[in-house]
Amino acid sequence: MSSFEEAGTEETVTCLHMTFYHPCQEDKMMFRCLNFCKREQVRADETPKFGRDSNVCRYNLMDTRVSRIQFSLQFYRKLNSSEFCFEIKNLSKKTKLIVDQTELGYLNKTDLPWKCIICFGDYQILAEIEEGESVDYFETHLHLAEVPILQERCLPSLQPVPENGISSSLFPTQGKSPMEIDENES
């Protein structure tokens, strides 16, 4: 038997990709303490916090308008399941946290959807979960967005509805480009 055959099965790791945007990033550099484009391991029993207090928060946002501790993430496994999830909890007494369309007040928490937008103040964070199997740790992979995430993401409710009142999202175009039709044609 070769060493390849005897080697343990490689375990995949759950990774939380987070893309950050703030309109004043270029001027104020509020993300300067975040480690972008490099995966970082976090022990499964840790609850990483985001905020401006570097003594408490693992991920620091350099902005006086951000709470000392803005929010935390908890990695967990669903009961009677092999599925891993993240729970997000608002730890700011002053600022509401919006996760997609769900508004979280102080100490409110919710499961993080596999892809969602987290907003507070002028901050926008696109969070995407890449599934894995490891029970000992997960990874975070931070990215910086150049343009607003809310404009970049295509939301069905923001698509224009044609004059006939039938939404094009009900009839997928399968890659066809829109075609202009003269109103005298039938």
Automatic annotation (TrEMBL):
- What's an example GO cellular component term for this entry? cytoplasm
User: What is the name of the gene encoding this protein?
Assistant: Tifa
What region holds the FHA domain?
A: 50-121
Record field: compositional bias (Polar residues) = 165-176
Give the protein name, as stated in the record.
TRAF-interacting protein with FHA domain-containing protein A
PANTHER family, A to Z = TRAF-INTERACTING PROTEIN WITH FHA DOMAIN-CONTAINING PROTEIN A, TRAF-INTERACTING PROTEIN WITH FHA DOMAIN-CONTAINING PROTEIN A FAMILY MEMBER
**Keyword Transcription regulation attributed:** no
Does Cytoplasm show up as a keyword for this record?
Answer: yes
Localization per record? Cytoplasm
Q: Name one Pfam family in it.
A: FHA
Annotated CDD domains? FHA_TIFA
Q: Which Gene Ontology terms describe the biological processes this protein takes part in?
A: innate immune response; positive regulation of canonical NF-kappaB signal transduction
UniProtKB keywords: Cytoplasm, Immunity, Innate immunity
**Family under the similarity heading:** Belongs to the TIFA family.
Query: Which residues does the annotated region (Disordered) include?
Result: 165-186
Species, as recorded:
Burhinus bistriatus
Q: Which domain of life is it from?
A: Eukaryota
InterPro entries noted in UniProt: FHA_dom (IPR000253), SMAD_FHA_dom_sf (IPR008984), TIFA (IPR033621)
Which SUPFAM superfamilies does the record associate with it? SMAD/FHA domain
